[in-house]
Amino acid sequence: MSQTELKTSADAASPEGADGEIRLAAGQQVSMRMWRDEAPNADKPPRRNRYETVGYVLKGRAELLVDGQTVPLGPGDSWLVPAEAEHTYRILERFTAIEATSPPAALHGDEG
């Protein structure tokens, strides 16, 4: 497992990141995390990341605001945030989703 930095399951012992995400697994090229039962919120401040993010909604509803576009998200929807794209999420109802980042978000000092 020399190329695996983290291998866990989504249980109580899974490591939690700075923004409350559950870190699932990370390697040299990609990492995966879960946002579980995130509460509704107002827009978080927009941000830009040096990595690409793809995600899949398990439950709940949210809106992804990316580069001036609003993308509605619900169960079964997936999304992409390109590297360096300005974006934020507006959570409309309790939200659970899985995300993968490439390269791993943690390589850029961003656990969240």
Estimate percent helicity: under 10%
Distance between the termini: 24 Å
Q: Indicate the radius of gyration in whole angstroms.
A: 13 Å
Number of strands: 7
Strand content: over 45%
What does the average pLDDT come to? 85
Q: Could you say which structural class the secondary elements and strand pairing correspond to?
A: mainly beta
- Main sheet makeup: 7 strands, antiparallel
List the uncertain runs.
none
SSE succession: EEEEEEE
Work out the helix count.
0
- Estimate the global geometry from the Cα principal axes: globular
Please tell me about this protein's structure.
This protein has 112 residues and is mostly beta strands. The chain is built from no helices and 7 strands. It has strands at 6-7, 22-26, 31-38, 52-66, 69-73, 78-81, 87-102. Strands 1, 2, 3, 4, 5, 6 and 7 form a 7-stranded antiparallel sheet that branches. A hairpin with a 2-residue loop joins strand 4 and strand 5 (69-73). The protein is globular and about 35 Å long. The mean pLDDT is 85.
